[in-house]
Predict the 3D structure of the following.
Amino acid sequence: MRKRLPRPLRKRALTKGRAFVHAEKRRAFAALLIAAATATAGAVAGCGGPPPAQAQPGPQAKMERIGHSPVPSVVLTPTGARRIGIQTTAAAVVQAGSPVTWIPYAALLYEPDSSTAVYVNTAPLVYSRYDVSVQDIAGDRVYVSKGLTPGMRVVTTGAEELLGVQNGVGVET
């Protein structure tokens, strides 16, 4: 058996009736929708995609003729260089007065015709390909007899990507 409410409470409950219950359900549902929309917007905004203003960033590299060089150089944007993770090191002299320099093996690129090349950082964000003559390879060192001078900054990380740009992958001409 149902217990009856005291008269003042019973009257208030009767006057509110079904409209009161429906209004409360609508408010709760609206609050739930707002909470879900806020959570979804936060999750989508942090999904790792580029911001809307950078949806079409454009090419991160292009080929340009720099100076009097017959071979075009790879010119990267700061973002492109950061994405590739370019690292360089200086070519070192083997012996004072010797024309032979050494570079890390990671800097050496092999062409299909078995020729060898390296990329040299000739200016900020500008990388030029130099053909080199390998005299010897010992461990992680490559001894180069022609093509480099001591102090030239050779690319040790990212050279393959620069070669890809030079061969037409992701380049603006």
Remarks:
- The chain has two domains: 1-49, 59-166.
